[in-house]
Amino acid sequence: MVDFGFGLVPSSRINLDSFDKDKYEELVSMEPDARICMACGTCTAVCTAGKFVHTSLREAIEDIFNAKPDNALADLKACQLCGKCSMVCPRGINTRHLIMSINKVYSDK
Ligand code: SF4
Ligand code: SF4
Question: What are phi and psi of 6, to 5 degrees?
Fold first, then answer.
């Protein structure tokens, strides 16, 4: 691609070489259900904190897959652990527990 020295939009390229497989395996060993999320966004649609400030478990899980764990933590920073998302997840994921595990695994880098 020709480099014109400027761009109209930020790059959306993903460097999968930076994917931390060990951290992901640690997360999945604690939360096997992290594998079955289908990114439907139901959890995000009902999120209590999301009514006021950006909060999205769906995006957090995608950010982890896209080797952007810092973004994942930011997506969950305002979570109040109310558990509402757990009640609506069509895959029956204990989302509240998953959020706590994501914070635990990726916060201590
Ligand atoms: S537990 Fe967190 S992510 Fe889930 S609905 Fe409550 S505030 Fe939102
Ligand atoms: S509701 Fe469940 S399956 Fe849908 S994005 Fe959230 S965690 Fe994933």
Answer: -155, 165
